Amino acid sequence: MADQPMEQESINVPLEHVGLEETPIVFVNQFLAQAQQDEFILILGQVAPPLFAGTPEEQLVKLRTVTSVRSNVVARFALTRTRLDELIATLEDIRTRADASRPRGEE
Fold this sequence. Notes:
- The protein is α+β, with helices and mostly antiparallel strands and 107 residues long.
- It has a domain at 30-101.
- 28% of the residues lie in helices and 24% in strands.
- The protein is built from two helices and three strands, in the order ββαβα.
- The protein has helices spanning 56-64, 81-101; strands spanning 30-36, 39-47, 71-80.
- The chain has a three-stranded antiparallel beta sheet with strand order 1-2-3.
- Strand 1 and strand 2 form a beta hairpin.
- It is elongated and about 90 Å long.
């Protein structure tokens, strides 16, 4: 009798997101992306615009001295093409569900 290949059984094991509750939620408003062959680098940052107090003239003087605005990097991620596609699909799905639950006329 010839050896028959065994049928592979699929077993689903749930993920446990360790540290989820302890990890702070951080606001990000800056995004950079870079592609290198089959890798995709995503950089998420946070920018707080400079505050200018005083009269409009004083504010203008201070504004003219600004040479750059800092973006504090919150996280850097490297993803494969497959994981990038998963992330895009997940974001599109959550946006669709959020839009569907929004009251009509609210933009």
